[in-house]
């Protein structure tokens, strides 16, 4: 009746429940079960939005509270508290104007909140009832049954911020919740401790986390301590102090080439000068001096020591001159950088091209670590607090016994290094050390994906299909250094697909740019060949939007694909790796589910820049693995000079894997399952995304300044929430483009290509199936793919 019955049937069932409760033949547990069932019927009837909605809502709350407070059965009390928390949360969202598929009306939510304020002594609002009973459910739940209550934790922390904690002290109730349940939310708790209004609530819990799980707290504390209250920061720093961990962090920093570190510092100073933030710029200068001019640093290896000897006098002089003359420090550093690098390259001419370098050449710390290996204070292998489903057993955690003597140097721009850690379990653990990048956003996207995986595992349909996103460990050590788990047996799709056909006499990249130029300028091929034409620019891509027909777009994409890769290339790679037809079917299934789930999860998170180097294929399983999340929450559409207009990558080379089956039919079903599971857990996901609001990254701050509005970051989160609320995908893209492109000459064609030229599009989709069809329409639209940036290789 609860899932399928009409309102009349539910009213009859409610009367039956109440009649049965009046009989004396029931045990106490049975009476409580009937009371919970009665509350569920009342809750459903309240959402009918008729004249009795308020009375049904009040009855549901009273029934749930009755069981939560009177039942001697812990499981029943926990269930009642959990159901009450969910009911209050949906009403609260309605009260705040959020989209909720099934809930009471806004008027009923307002009246219900007013009734709570005037009627209950132990809780005075929907928010406080939610907080109190979420904490009760968490405290009562056992480790193996804690998942439903855990999903409410980020929402709980958000509401603790928004309500007035001075009216109620939740600190003791928080301490009754198992401490390990908060391991995923350490950044939020640290941020709360810094808030004078929330310190009383959060401080005892943070102290317990520091005491029980210092290795889990320390990395997050190191990232936020400079922005925390000074006295709180000093006390925590004393509790977490570890010369071993400090040496590890410094050693990892020194693995970044010193010339790269100098360039990073200068760019940060340039940003702060642009923002006219004198104090921040001065602090960054001090950090640079400490990093690059201290010749007495005992952890410097040969490479870094020589660089410091070269750079120290030049940097010191340049900074002193700029400060004395009150001129731009960035300009002075730019000249100094050129001078330092010129000397550096002469002394170490082949260093940046080396494929392997000894660890000790970067830092002496790695050699000295051997004396600490095996002792109780030894460092843990990173990543052991990911995917926590039970209290961590610290004694069984793997520690670092040592390091391989050399690092492998990759060829990408920042020259990241692959380091091998020897574990106490006899295994090797490999990580990529990245310098000059803030990996906090990558770490948070991984945390969001892990939360999404939890929802997919909790949903019967998505779990049955094996839908999940492949995640990996990311550990930011500072705002400029971090570790990323190395993914074995994977290869970038570009390396697998981009194998030119020998007889092709053109480069696809150049040919695509020529095609863009023709559409942007209106020049035909003959006119272009007879006239001088400048190189293709960003504005050419924008001007080309809407200038080519569907047939013309399909033709260029098909021609470039045939010139770049062999037919069904990815399908053949999987078949060869599988070794048999039966194994190939399983690998194709794995490929399909990973494509469907990663596409939808990535769409909700607004992950962009999905070029072929940022998607890996696991040759052993067929899974797709996404990496590099520098562009998230719509940045690739909103901020890039050539906006990404497709929601995810579903290009021909990927869809060919499904041949001879219909790729779209296959993907639609699994994408719908994924989106429904995420919508069911929207409370959890919105709470996780709140982290981005509370501690904006420096790139977000830069975009906010350029956008000229402090609400820029909030708008990005709000759009992400809208994707969970059936927002029309085409309208979402138009909204993301509007602030930057509305007053441009190409705006009309851009908008027309996305939403058409007829009646205004509906802002909401009718259901999930409609939303997924709209997403696939955008992702496979040849008119959008043909005008994408050439480096994205939309033909593959």
From TrEMBL:
One of its GO terms (biological process) is double-strand break repair. This is Non-specific serine/threonine protein kinase. Residues 403-745 form the PI3K/PI4K catalytic domain. Residues 764-796 form the FATC domain. GO terms for molecular function: DNA-dependent protein kinase activity. Transmembrane segments: none annotated. Signal peptide: none annotated. Pfam families: FATC, PI3_PI4_kinase. GO terms for cellular component: nucleus. It comes from Ostreococcus sp. 'lucimarinus'.
């Amino acid at each position: 009746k609860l899932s399928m019955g009409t309102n009349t049937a539910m009213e009859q069932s409610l009367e039956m429940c109440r009649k049965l409760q009046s009989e004396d033949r029931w045990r106490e547990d049975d009476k409580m079960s009937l009371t919970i069932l009665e509350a569920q019927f009342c809750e459903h009837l309240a959402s009918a939005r008729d004249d009795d909605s308020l009375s049904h809502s009040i009855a549901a709350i009273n029934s749930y509270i009755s069981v939560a407070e009177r039942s001697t059965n812990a499981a029943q009390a926990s269930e009642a508290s959990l159901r009450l928390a969910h009911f209050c949360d949906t009403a609260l969202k309605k009260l705040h104007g959020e989209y909720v598929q099934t809930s009471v009306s806004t008027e009923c939510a307002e009246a219900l909140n007013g009734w709570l304020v005037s009627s209950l002594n132990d809780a005075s609002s929907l928010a406080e009832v939610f907080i109190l009973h979420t904490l009760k459910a968490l405290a009562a739940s056992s480790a193996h049954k804690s998942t439903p209550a855990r999903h409410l934790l980020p929402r709980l922390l958000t509401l603790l911020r928004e309500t007035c904690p001075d009216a109620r002290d939740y600190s003791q109730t928080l301490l009754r919740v198992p401490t390990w349940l908060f391991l995923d939310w350490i950044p939020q708790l640290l941020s709360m401790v810094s808030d004078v209004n929330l310190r009383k609530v959060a401080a005892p819990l943070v102290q317990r986390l520091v005491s029980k799980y210092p290795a889990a707290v320390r990395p997050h504390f190191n990232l936020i301590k400079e922005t925390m209250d000074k006295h709180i920061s000093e006390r925590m720093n004393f509790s977490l102090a570890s010369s071993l961990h400090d040496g590890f962090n410094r050693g990892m920093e020194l693995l970044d080439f010193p010339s790269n570190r100098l360039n990073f510092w200068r760019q940060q100073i340039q940003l702060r000068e642009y923002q006219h933030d004198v104090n921040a710029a001065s602090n960054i200068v001090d950090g640079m001096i400490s990093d690059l001019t201290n010749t007495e640093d005992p952890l410097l290896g040969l490479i870094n020591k020589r660089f410091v000897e070269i750079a120290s006098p030049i940097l010191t002089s340049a900074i002193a001159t700029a400060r004395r003359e009150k001129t731009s420090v960035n300009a002075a550093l730019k000249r100094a950088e050129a001078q330092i690098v010129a000397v550096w390259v002469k002394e170490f001419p082949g260093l940046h091209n080396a494929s392997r370098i000894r660890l000790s050449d970067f830092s002496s710390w790695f050699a000295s670590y051997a004396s600490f290996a095996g002792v109780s204070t030894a460092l843990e292998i990173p990543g052991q607090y990911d995917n926590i489903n039970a209290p961590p057993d610290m004694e069984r955690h793997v520690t670092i016994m040592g390091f391989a003597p050399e690092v492998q140097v990759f060829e990408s721009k920042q020259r990241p290094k692959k380091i091998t850690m020897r574990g106490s379990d006899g295994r090797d653990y490999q990580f990529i050390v990245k310098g000059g990048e803030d990996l906090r956003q990558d770490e948070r996207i991984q945390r969001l994906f892990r939360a999404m995986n939890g929802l997919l595992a909790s949903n019967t349909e998505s779990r049955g299909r094996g839908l999940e996103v492949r995640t990996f460990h990311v550990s930011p050590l500072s705002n400029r250094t971090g570790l990323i788990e190395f993914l074995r047996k994977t290869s970038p799709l570009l390396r697998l697909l981009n194998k030119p056909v020998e007889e092709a006499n053109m480069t696809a990249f150049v040919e695509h740019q020529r095609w863009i130029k023709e559409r942007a300028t209106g020049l035909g091929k003959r006119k272009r060949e007879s006239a001088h034409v400048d190189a293709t620019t960003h504005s050419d891509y924008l001007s080309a939007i809407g200038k080519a027909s569907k047939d013309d777009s399909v033709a260029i994409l098909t021609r470039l694909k045939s010139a770049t890769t062999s037919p069904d290339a990815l399908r053949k790679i999987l078949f060869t790796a599988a070794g048999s037809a039966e194994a190939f079917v399983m690998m194709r299934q794995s490929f399909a589910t990973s494509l469907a789930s990663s596409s939808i999860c990535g769409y909700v998170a607004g992950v962009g820049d999905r070029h072929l180097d940022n998607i890996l294929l696991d040759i052993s399983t067929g899974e797709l693995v996404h990496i590099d999340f520098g562009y998230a929450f719509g940045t690739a559409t909103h901020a890039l000079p050539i906006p990404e207009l497709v929601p995810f990558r579903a290009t021909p080379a990927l869809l060919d894997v499904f041949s001879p089956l219909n790729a779209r039919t296959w993907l639609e079903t699994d994408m719908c399952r994924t989106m429904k599971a995420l919508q069911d857990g929207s409370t959890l996901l919105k709470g996780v995304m709140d982290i981005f609001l509370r501690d904006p990254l420096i790139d977000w701050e830069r975009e906010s300044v350029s956008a000229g509005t402090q609400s820029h970051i909030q708008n990005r989160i709000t759009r992400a929430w809208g994707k969970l609320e059936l927002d029309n995908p085409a309208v979402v893209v138009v909204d993301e483009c509007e602030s930057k492109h509305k007053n441009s000459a190409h705006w009309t064609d851009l908008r027309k290509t996305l939403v058409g030229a007829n009646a205004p599009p509906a802002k909401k989709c009718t259901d999930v199936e409609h939303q997924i069809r709209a997403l696939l329409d955008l992702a496979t639209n040849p008119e959008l793919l043909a005008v994408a940036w050439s480096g994205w290789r939309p033909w593959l």
